[in-house]
Amino acid sequence: MEKKPKLKVSIIKGKGVMNIKNKCHDILLIEDKEGSYLIDPTVWQFFKNKRSILIGKAKDIKVIHGILKDIYKGSWKITERLTKKDCSQKKKWLKIIKQNIAEL
Fold first, then answer.
1. How far apart, in whole angstroms, are the C-alpha atoms of residue 31 and residue 76?
2. Are 13 and 26 a contacting pair, CB within 8 Å?
3. 90-104 pLDDT, tens digit each
């Protein structure tokens, strides 16, 4: 967002992830004129052998929801839109991601 301010970035929250009743998970949705991209910085919580944090890409948001349901199960919805102003929290987010990775 700092380098490409025209990107739309959102957090999509999943509930019932991996068919576990109270399991929740957040994924980034990045949208630009080319399409939408799903990024999961902590994908290794679920998929130890995954080689990329890019989970999927599509031109249509309905396809994005389908990708999430196919991979993670559960129900998904956009819960937060991020703005350039939110980038000030970058250090906090990196700390949370590092903690999640360390817990693996």
1. 17
2. yes
3. 677 778 777 777 765
- The token duo for 41 is 């910085």
Tell me which residue of 59, 23, 29, 58 sits closest to 41, measured CA to CA.
29
Q: What confidence tens digit (pLDDT) does each residue in 40-59 have?
A: 988 988 999 999 999 999 99
Decide if 38 contacts 55 (C-beta within 8 A): yes
Domain boundaries, the chain: 8-102
Number of DSSP helices (H) and strands (E) in the chain, helices first: 2, 5
Considering the entire predicted model, what is its pTM? Answer: 0.78
CA distance 22 to 54: 25
